[in-house]
Specification:
InterPro entries: DEATH-like_dom_sf, Death_dom
CATH class of the largest domain: Alpha Beta
Number of domains: 6
Shape: flat
Number of helices: 52
Organism: Stylophora pistillata
Oligomer: single chain
CATH architecture of the largest domain: 3-Layer(aba) Sandwich
Protein name: D-inositol 3-phosphate glycosyltransferase
Number of strands: 26
Structural class: alpha/beta
CATH topology of the largest domain: Rossmann fold
GO molecular function: transferase activity
Largest sheet: 7 strands, parallel
Keywords: Transferase
Radius of gyration: 40 Å
């Protein structure tokens, strides 16, 4: 009957799990037959696991995600955990906010537990801002929650008032903690000793010293010196007892009047001992949500004095005898007087009054009744499941009746201890100590035997009651195995296989029943798939059907069916064309194609409508409809775009690399690009809009930082591929959550990979980056240095092939920003600085180099990202010996700031000791500013491969070397410097193009998406990129294709006896064969643009001839290389369309090879063997 129960999850932090309120809730809720209770904590301890098992409650941990703190893990419950109602404890700023995320993921109801009123705490604390912020967060969370559980009347009254404006005051439930049954009767009547011991809770004293009224208690002790009182303060085991002692002594209390003890409050035995030791407990709090420490004392019949300003005080005032235990003042004298009254009472009177208070409290605040009301309220939130809940109750009642047949079991399971009798029996507690040891041992043995008998009885009854359920479960498992067997057979051999399975099972018709079972199991997914396919058809225009499919449709519909007329003629009537129009089209070479061309202009011309026409009763062309459906369900085309999302924080979005990626990916027709930036600015949204890119914000979850919000994209954001930038330990880790949520591919963009982390001191960051790269589907490494480091780190996991090197290109908006400078008096040198990366960026090298030049005519300008670090970095630079008059520290936050900087300075340097790339250096190169770059950063490595680039690289981290190179640059003629800077920029532009590299990235990622089969993020068929437009994913694939083609061509060529008839020397013969094979390989690897003109022209002439039946001309070639229908139609208007298509294709040199062209021409859909033979003849010939 578990499926009939309401699934309730209690979630809290590790410390919150041990609280009294949480434990009482667990115990009472677990008793209710209509619910199933589960616990959720970030990371549980073995003790907590054991405690949960004793309560028959499963305790689960949050998902373990790399880079997330334990507190953050509470937002991510296990996938298998079913939640109907989430009860979330809320403490401070970090616990409680997770419910927003869990409710979204699990689609559950949310009950929010509030323990304190932070606004009141702030009055008596130093950190007032934090408490006020916490109170604001609690109000926001309460407004979002379905219900609010307030612990005690004080918290309930406050939040009812504050939530009245939004109509949620009725959603506040007052849950007053109940008596702790385990502590009832533990105290015995005894005569007080020389000292009257008073207990006070001082936990978290550093934060709540005045809130808890510890100063009031200490000062009250000054007025109680004649009665010899002793104050015992308990603190957490990890708190500093000496610190609290010093604070109490300052209040005037004597050292011999108090003690500060570390105390483990989660241990019940500790409480029993302590409550028996002391004579009174006080709570002089100036304000407190409730005060469960004193509730334990009440449960143990210990006299109490409680402030009226706490929740427990308000609860006690409602009891008949409760008022005498409540103090209405914060004056130490008043508290001292009240304590004296308790001392003056006899021990019997003290116990009697304490017992009366406990009985009244127990009757007024029954936790069992409160929890039953709470569950009833929860059940009303699920009106459609009321019958299930009734069945659960009935099942429980039947079980109780059957269990009643065993009275000894019922007696064993039910507590029948009467607390009053137990107390009277133990009044003379000393008699228990005098009891003979043998008698004690005998009683223990009898009790153990009795317990074992009762356990056996319970187990026997349980086995009898569960036999039927277990038999049913066994049958269900057997049927499931049959279903899975038939399903597996059906998948392998189709209908025939299913039929064989049926015969093998001795004629038992399990195939049919299995099919029915499978339909039931997969009904939800099937309906969702069908709906998705229908939506997709409706959104695809008929004119976007690829030529390879269109040719098959036309061939079938062009065949005249003169009996049924269910060919192009009946289709034309359904498209509402007149008979005259259809008759004229019938005279064309390809009437179906001409008919479709006319129909495309109508708004209804979609794939879905065409399939509907073909399936109608009078048409009944299921063969043609099946071609369309099978094609759409099994292949991937350029019909719709790939949804790419670039995710970063506000600062990361403004970085140069992200900006260029956004621009280039946004220009790609095959992509729909979206930016995901939590708390993005208006300026960023306007900039994204100018690039035709939508910039979206995260879900509105209160209490989370901007980096944390990056884990929660909007529900309506469709993601096929996620690009997420990785900066430090704070960015990049969120992709784990987004991938699981959106079922998308994950591309980690890595800017720097601290392989030499022992130098940089980034060990944790390096480990996290490695883990993220191992989990990602692909890694884009910025620059060759970062790419190599990533590949090395991924060798162990064998994922090094997932790394894509993306070397940033020239920033076009900065070209020409730096103008020719005359030889001015002062030579200004620019460097990008950072206080955190001071040594990594070589800021000290730059400062020392300027100092070594020993002339005031050199000036160092340091650009930083934030004004917060200008003063500190200036101090650090001055310590290196540079003259303050030769130093300027400025802020460069935007591209416009950099544009101004590069206009002012004469040289940019990057003396980095270790840097992933060095974008500031590339900005300078883009602006035609002379540069000197260290070979220890990625940009320096890149420049060594660029024409004229090596002269701008410095192979040393010695300050003197840098001083000499700066001087050499200055000594050059200004015009020559400017000319060389332009040459460097031109060479870099030719070598590294943003456009080409981004196209290669898109091609690789398209294949990555297709590897998962029919791609979708929610079991929806999605059309992305044509498979033949892919570039080879690996060089190995391309080489294999070339090898096979070469072997086939060479075998054909060498089979001709005349080709080797003149070769008599066997050794020479083999040399010629090897040479021929080498030539074949070289030609197959050539780009199509390098095919000799005579051969190239024959290919173009053959493909330019229109073949309107099969479309196996230039149009299908364009289709195969990834051009859209509009692009093909446009090219068709040119004089040589095949040439235009091949030239466009040649912009992707790794794909557009001779081998690939032959492969496309021989594709079964294309089938142009005549054109392929032209190319193959040239490949195998000796002609140049």
């Amino acid at each position: 009957m578990e499926q009939c129960k309401l699934n309730i999850t209690l979630a809290t932090g590790v410390i919150g799990w041990n609280t009294l309120v949480n434990k009482q809730l667990l115990i009472e809720l677990a008793k209710n037959p209509t619910i199933k209770v589960t616990g959720l904590v970030p990371s549980s301890t073995p003790e907590q696991k054991e405690q949960a098992r004793e309560l028959i409650v499963e305790l689960l941990d949050g998902q373990e995600l790399d880079g997330f703190s334990p507190k953050e893990r509470l937002s991510f419950p296990p996938d298998h955990l079913e939640i109907d109602v989430l009860i979330m404890h809320s403490y401070g700023l970090h616990e409680g906010k997770h419910a927003q995320v869990i409710r979204t993921i699990k689609k559950c109801k949310w009950f929010h537990i509030i323990h304190t009123i932070s606004e009141e705490l702030a009055k008596y604390m130093d950190q007032k801002y934090e408490q006020k912020k916490e109170h604001e967060l609690q109000l926001k969370l309460s407004q979002k929650a379905d219900s609010i559980i307030a612990v005690g009347p004080k918290v309930a009254d406050t939040f009812r008032s504050e939530l009245r404006h939004c109509g949620k005051s009725n959603d506040v439930i007052d849950l007053t903690p109940g008596i702790v049954n385990e502590l009832v009767g533990v105290r015995l009547i005894h005569q007080p000793g020389e000292k009257f011991r008073i207990l006070i809770s001082a936990t978290w004293f550093a934060k709540y010293y005045r809130v808890k009224g510890l100063d009031i208690a200490a000062r009250a002790m000054k007025f109680l010196q004649e009665v010899s009182c002793y104050l015992i303060c308990i603190v957490n085991p990890d708190e500093d007892t000496e610190e609290l002692s010093e604070q109490l002594l300052k209040e005037g209390i004597e050292l011999d009047q108090f003690a500060v003890r570390p105390f483990q409050s989660s241990d019940l035995e500790n409480w029993k001992k302590l409550l028996c030791e002391v004579d009174l407990i006080i709570m002089p709090s100036r304000t407190e949500g409730f005060g469960t420490t004193n509730l334990r004392a009440i449960s143990a019949d210990l006299p109490v004095l409680v402030s009226q300003n706490c929740g427990l005080g308000m609860a006690l005032k409602k009891l008949h005898s409760g008022a005498k235990h409540v103090i209405k003042s914060n004056d130490p004298k008043v508290w001292a007087a009240s304590i004296k009254k308790v001392i003056e009472n006899s021990p019997e009177d003290q116990l009697s009054e304490a017992k009366q208070l406990r009985q009244e409290y127990e009757e007024k605040y029954s936790l069992e009744k409160q929890c039953n009301c709470l569950v009833e309220r929860m059940l009303t939130l699920f009106p459609s499941r009321q019958e299930d809940f009734k069945q659960s109750v009935e099942h429980s009642e039947v079980f109780e009746q059957e269990r009643g047949q065993y009275p000894e079991v019922q007696q064993y399971e039910t507590e029948t201890v009467v607390h009053e009798e137990r107390a009277l029996e133990n009044v003379n507690y000393r008699s228990q100590e005098l009891r003979p040891a043998a008698e004690m041992k005998s009683n223990q043995t009898e009790r153990k035997a009795y317990d074992e008998e009762m356990v056996d009885a319970v187990q026997k009854q349980t086995k009898e009651l569960s036999f039927g359920a277990r038999r049913t479960e066994t049958e269900r498992v057997d049927n499931k195995e049959i279903v899975e067997t038939v399903q597996g057979g059906t998948h392998q051999v189709g209908y025939a296989g299913a039929k064989d399975v049926k015969e093998e099972r001795n004629g038992f018709d399990q195939v049919d029943s299995a099919g029915a079972a499978l339909d039931g199991v997969n009904d939800k997914n099937s309906n969702r798939n069908q709906a998705a396919i229908t939506n997709m058809r409706q959104s695809i225009k008929a004119e976007d059907i690829p030529y390879s499919i269109l040719s098959k449709i036309c061939l079938k519909l062009n065949i005249r069916k003169d009996l049924s007329f269910n060919d192009f003629r009946l289709l034309g009537e359904k498209m509402k064309f007149t008979k005259d129009v259809i008759t004229n089209l019938g005279q064309k070479e390809n009437p179906t194609y001409e008919l479709l061309q006319l129909w495309y202009a109508k708004p209804e011309a979609t794939v879905e409508k065409l399939i509907t026409f073909l399936k109608e009763d009078d048409m009944e062309r299921w063969d043609v409809a099946t071609i369309l459906e099978n094609c759409l369900c099994t292949r991937v085309y350029t019909i719709s775009k790939l949804n790419v999302t670039l995710a970063s924080d506000v600062d990361g979005w403004n970085k140069t690399v992200n900006g260029q990626l956004v621009i280039e990916l946004g220009r790609n027709d095959r992509l729909c690009v979206t930016g995901f930036v939590p708390n993005n600015t208006q300026q960023q949204r306007e900039h994204a809009s100018s690039l035709n890119i939508q910039l979206v914000d995260s879900k509105a979850h209160d209490g989370f930082s901007s980096a944390d919000l990056l884990s929660f994209p909007p529900d309506n954001l469709n993601i096929d591929i996620l690009f997420i930038h990785c900066h430090g330990e704070n960015l990049g880790r969120q992709a784990q959550v987004i991938k699981d949520l959106k079922k998308c591919k994950w591309v980690q963009v890595v800017h720097s990979f601290h392989e030499e982390c022992h130098i940089a001191g980034y060990e944790d960051e390096h480990k996290l980056q490695t883990k993220m790269c191992e989990k990602a589907d692909a890694v884009i490494a910025i620059g060759p240095k970062t790419a190599e480091s990533c590949r090395r780190a991924l060798l162990f996991s064998r994922r090094q092939e997932n790394v894509i090197n993306l070397t940033p290109g020239i920033c076009e908006d900065l070209i020409g920003a730096h103008q020719l400078h005359k030889d001015w008096t002062t030579f200004h040198v620019l460097i990008s600085g950072s206080l955190r990366h001071f040594n990594i960026k070589g800021c000290d090298i730059a400062a020392k180099a300027i100092k070594l030049l020993n002339t005031p005519s050199y000036h160092l300008t340091v650009a930083v990202k934030s004004s917060n670090e200008t003063a500190d970095i200036r101090k650090a630079l001055l310590k290196e010996g540079i003259d303050s008059r030769q130093l300027t520290v400025c802020v460069a936050e935007s591209r416009e700031d950099w544009r101004k900087l590069v206009c002012k300075v004469d040289l940019a340097i990057k003396p980095s000791r270790n840097e992933g790339f060095g974008m500031s250096g590339l900005l300078a190169i883009s602006a035609d500013l002379p540069v000197l770059i260290s070979d220890c950063c990625g940009l320096g490595i890149v420049l060594k491969t660029v024409l004229f680039g090596n002269s701008h690289v410095v192979d040393s981290d010695e300050s003197q070397v840098w001083a000499d190179r700066i001087k050499q640059v200055r000594n050059r003629d200004p015009e020559l410097r400017h000319k060389e800077a332009k040459q460097l920029r031109d060479g870099y532009t030719k070598k590294f193009s943003w456009k080409n590299q981004c196209e290669e990235v898109v091609a690789k990622l398209s294949k990555l998406v297709q590897k998962s089969g029919v791609y979708d993020s929610s079991l929806t068929v999605t059309f992305v990129v044509s498979p033949v437009t892919e570039q080879p994913a690996e060089k190995q694939d391309q080489e294999e294709t070339v090898k096979n083609l070469a072997k086939r061509i060479q075998d054909t060529s060498l089979s001709d006896k005349s080709s080797i008839s003149e070769v008599k020397d066997p050794k020479k013969k083999f040399d010629m064969v090897d040479a021929g094979r080498t030539q074949v390989n070289e030609r197959l690897l050539m780009s199509v643009k390098d095919i000799p003109l005579p051969v190239y022209s024959r290919v173009c002439v053959s493909l330019n001839v229109l073949r309107n039946v099969r479309f196996d001309d230039f149009r299908m070639l364009g289709d195969k290389v990834g051009l859209s229908r509009d692009e093909i139609e446009f090219v068709g208007q040119q004089g040589n369309p095949a040439d235009e298509i091949l030239k466009t294709w040649s912009s992707r040199p790794r794909e557009a090879t001779v081998a690939k062209l032959i492969e496309l021409l021989k594709d079964k859909d294309f089938g142009r063997m005549d054109v392929a033979q032209i190319v193959e003849d040239w490949v195998s010939s000796k002609e140049r």
